[in-house]
Write a structure and sequence with these properties.
2 helices; two-stranded antiparallel ribbon; 4-stranded antiparallel sheet; elongated
Length: 112
């Protein structure tokens, strides 16, 4: 099993969710986050005053899938979330040692 952590632009969330559902992803966790990477924030003007925005709003997706699905999930997120502009996000893949479905006690692949 693998944990896929992806950061994407907020307006891409629904499109990414639909694409992942189509390829068989059955669940994910979504968190609103703030962060910065290459863009290092930016400046905005509000009511005539300029101010620095050091952290940009992002969405963090956490998805656990069976190892054979990883490449397909990463490719789907990459294609769907990509705008071609700075700040499109990042994807990380980590190993998962154990999973348990609390309701039934099912473990590992059965818990997904």
């Amino acid at each position: 099993m693998k944990l896929i952590i992806a950061t994407i632009k907020p307006f891409k969330l629904e499109e990414v969710r639909e694409a992942l559902t189509e390829i068989g992803v059955r669940g994910m966790m979504v968190t609103e986050i703030k962060g910065f990477g290459s863009q290092s924030g930016h400046t905005e003007i509000y009511r005539g005053a300029e101010y620095a925005v050091n952290f940009v709003p992002k969405i963090k997706l956490e998805i656990v899938v069976a190892a054979p699905m990883v490449d397909q999930v990463v490719e789907t997120i990459t294609k769907t979330a990509q705008t071609g502009k700075i700040g499109d996000g990042k994807i990380f893949v980590l190993s998962v040692e154990q999973a348990v479905r609390v309701r039934t006690g099912e473990t590992n692949a059965d818990a997904l």
